[in-house]
Amino acid sequence: MESKSVMLAATARMLGYPDDQFTEMRSDMLDAIRSGIEDPILRERLERALESLYTIPLKELQELYVWTFDWKDKTGLYLTAHELGDSRERGAALILLQHIVQDAGFSLTNGELSDYIPMLFELLALRPDHVHVRALELRLAVACKRIRDNLDEDSPYGELFGILMTEVFEEPSEEDIRMLESKREVADLDELPYPILYGMDGTARSDTGLPTYKMCN
Fold first, then answer.
1. Looking at the 3D structure of the chain, how many domains does it have?
2. Using CA atoms, how far apart are residues 193 and 147, in angstroms rounded to an integer?
3. In terms of Cα–Cα distance, which of 1, 40, 18, 52 is closest to 154?
4. What CATH number corresponds to the domain at position 52?
């Protein structure tokens, strides 16, 4: 697996919900980074990003994760929420992504939505040659730039998105960003004390963290 795919796969796992298994994945992720990335500077950056997460007690990291990715729409981990916001077009976009996943020979597990960004990283890492998967790169680049630009300066996840934008994705143009923002509709939250949690169906945070793709038979 080439370095780009290793970075995508490792980042996908680091952006999964930090449940109890997250602690157990530490050594496996370090081994994958050390064996799969030849550039010593890049390898050190990714190791440092990983270790910055493990310096935080698990319960605190879980709370930080929810606050960062579930409660803030500008740093959420759902692609079509960045692209379409509260637009009714989002449902159709989710169905289209589901078809792309299936056409690439995979199926979703753990009941996650088809636009969950860490899962799309996994798909891109495993099927970078697939025409429809490859076309997701620009969309992911725009969303990741938006997330990176809106993370708190001291966020332990900042380095991950910095690596993605310098080593994996090309920096999107202003026109790319404008096109993404042109179809976004903002939900009416005037009477709500918190943002709508896109994709939260009551079970989204009760599974084993990062959902994975599996090959269809």
1. 1
2. 22
3. 52
4. 1.10.3480
